Amino acid sequence: MSKTLLLVGARSELAQNFIEKIKNKYSTIFFIYREKDRYFENNVNDKLKKCKCIFIYSNFEDSFHKKTFSKHKKYLVGNKIDILLFQSPKPQTVRFINLKISEIEKNLKVQSYYSLELIQYLIGELKPKILKVLFTLTIYNLEPTPYLMPYLLAKNFNEKICELLNIEYPNYKFLSVFPSILRTKFLSRLHELSLQIEEKKFKSKKYLNTKDKLTNEIYKKLL
């Protein structure tokens, strides 16, 4: 049975780190990200020459488009399917009294609703025999912190989705990882001093506190 990966938020640094690791583990990979990037696509095709690479564009705030995936149905039907979810707006610190409710809505749309509709489509219409879904959450699901409410509400929402889907669909696997602060462009809106404080807090070896440790943990869970 062939194996297909749906990599959501494929242009993120963490997703690209994972691409380096997987090489020829999948026969088909769907790269789902915001907008066309010819350099990125050429680079991926060069690295994964034995793999069918399909590029799909979405800003993740729009509704999920079934037609886009239906065009490529032959690479999904009958295959083992893994979904790896990285998509998220960049987090930024904000006090509750200054919080715009629209930021909560945006985070839920990007991080959660798109994922839900994608999973719903796969289970409802394609009914794969083997399905694994891995949510990239955060250490703050386990050890909450203030001033990141929009970002963390969506992460907590996703954690609950994972829990409930595991109960409803015991034949499938809904997994999660909880990385701590990782130095990527994704955190560019956070203050340097705050980053340094958080890095010290999660310095212990027990945390997923480097890109390589996170990549290895994802690899173990999916492959």
Q: Tags for this entry?
A:
single chain; 223 residues; alpha/beta; Rossmann fold; six-stranded parallel sheet; 7 helices; 42% helix; globular
Structure write-up:
The chain has 223 residues and is α/β, with parallel strands linked by helices. The protein has one domain (3-222): 3-Layer(aba) Sandwich (Rossmann fold), CATH 3.40.50. 42% of the residues lie in helices and 16% in strands. The protein has seven helices and six strands, in the order E-H-E-H-E-H-E-H-E-H-E-H-H. The chain has a six-stranded parallel beta sheet, with helices on both faces. Helix 5 links the parallel strand 5 and strand 6 (173-177). Helix 4 runs parallel beside helix 5. The longest helix is centred in the middle third of the chain and has 26 residues, at 101-126. The model has no long low-confidence stretch (mean pLDDT 92).
Number of domains: 1
The total beta strand count reads: 6
Rg result: 17 Å
Characterize the largest beta sheet: strand count, sense, and whether it forms a barrel: 6 strands, parallel
CATH architecture verdict: 3-Layer(aba) Sandwich
Q: What best-fitting shape do the alpha-carbon axes yield?
A: globular
User: Proportion of β residues?
Assistant: 15-25%
Give me the secondary-structure category. alpha/beta
Order of helices and strands: EHEHEHEHEHEHH
* The first-level CATH class name: Alpha Beta
- Helix proportion of residues, in percent? 40-55%
Give the topology:
Blueprint: E1 3-8, H1 13-22, E2 28-33, H2 38-47, E3 52-57, H3 66-70, E4 80-85, H4 101-126, E5 131-136, H5 149-168, E6 173-177, H6 192-201, H7 211-222
Parallel strand pairs: 1-2, 1-4, 2-3, 4-5, 5-6
Helix pairs in contact: 1-7, 4-5
